[in-house]
Specification:
- It contains 8 helices and 12 strands.
- The protein has 285 residues and is of the alpha+beta class.
- The strands form 4 sheets. It has a 5-stranded antiparallel beta sheet with strand order 1-2-3-7-6, with helices on both faces. A 3-stranded antiparallel beta sheet has the order 8-10-11. The protein has a two-stranded antiparallel ribbon with strand order 4-5.
- Strand 2 and strand 3 form a beta hairpin.
- Helix 4 runs antiparallel to helix 6.
- The N terminus is likely disordered.
């Protein structure tokens, strides 16, 4: 009764199975399949644990416990009665792009959902990577950004907008610079008129403060630019409230082609901001 990308599970809309019976089945299935080892991280959006598969301890996993109260929106597939938005979009995104960390399974209980994901050896989040290593050269940054843009283009083609691209939501292998995108807690449909403000305020594009609504393409490009800026300069500073403060002193050692790309990414007018496809076509990454 494994839950996979078609979301088949014991929590269908079969009225013969009560919620209590469903939760009991889920608990037994989880305990039979996975073992939690220790806590990896904690935030308002959930708790992350290290773990492994019981029938093969060499298969390491990451388990995210997501509070039920944080998932007020559900997606519906065929006769399945409700898949939490984060889990729904994560599975769909992994189908669309190999740059997304792979989800393996999910479970539900009275108070939370558990999302089980692959654990990749040697990968750390980009926030920690920058704290350990500082800014990186343009050539290395282009390797990272090329993968990130390609990932976001593939998600766009699948109708998915991540909505919270930032260094903390990107895993990187420090040796190979391979990346994986994580955390689809704010994900939604890719639209020219996103219906609500979502994500991390420090990375909001300027138009969001004027219109309260934003185009998915323009939002994604701006947040990709934030990651690029962090890679190249080691920082992303705001005015203490919301607006990003571009620090031109940190750009002195960048090539003219890189500065020109940054100018096109951080264009204040979202309609004139460079697109993801044009970033790839520019030859910079």
């Amino acid at each position: 009764m494994s839950r996979n990308s078609d979301f088949s599970s014991c929590s269908s809309d079969d009225s013969r199975i009560s919620d209590e019976e469903t939760y009991a089945l889920e608990r037994r299935r989880f305990k039979k399949t996975y073992k939690i080892e220790d806590e990896l991280a904690r935030s308002a959006n959930g708790i992350i644990y290290n773990g492994y598969k019981k029938n093969d301890k060499s298969v390491r996993v990451v388990i995210k416990q997501i509070p039920r109260k944080k998932n007020l929106e559900f997606k519906h597939e065929d006769r399945i009665k409700g898949v939490p938005r984060e889990i729904y979009y994560h599975f769909k995104a992994a189908e669309a792009s190999s740059y997304v960390i792979k989800p393996l399974d999910w479970f539900e209980s009275h108070s939370s959902y558990c999302l089980v994901m692959e654990k990749l050896d040697g990968f750390i989040d980009l926030f920690d990577f920058i704290n350990l290593n500082g800014a990186i050269c343009e050539e290395d940054a282009s390797l990272v950004i090329g993968q990130l843009v390609q990932c976001c283009v593939e998600l766009k083609q699948a109708g998915i907008c991540h909505r919270d691209i930032k260094d903390e939501n990107i895993l990187i292998n420090p040796d190979t610079y391979q990346i994986r995108l994580i955390d689809f807690g704010w994900a939604g449909e890719f639209s020219k008129d996103l219906p609500s403000v979502a994500g991390t305020q420090a990375y909001f594009p300027p138009e969001i403060y004027n219109d309260k609504r934003v185009d998915a393409e323009a939002l994604t490009v701006w947040t990709i630019g934030a990651v690029l800026y962090i890679l190249l300069t080691g920082n992303w500073e705001t005015d203490g409230q919301s607006q990003w403060l571009r620090n031109f002193k940190t750009e002195r050692n960048l090539t003219s082609s890189t500065v020109a790309l940054l100018d096109r990414i951080f264009c204040i007018n979202p309609e004139k901001r460079i697109t993801m496809e044009n970033i790839l076509a520019s030859g910079w990454c």
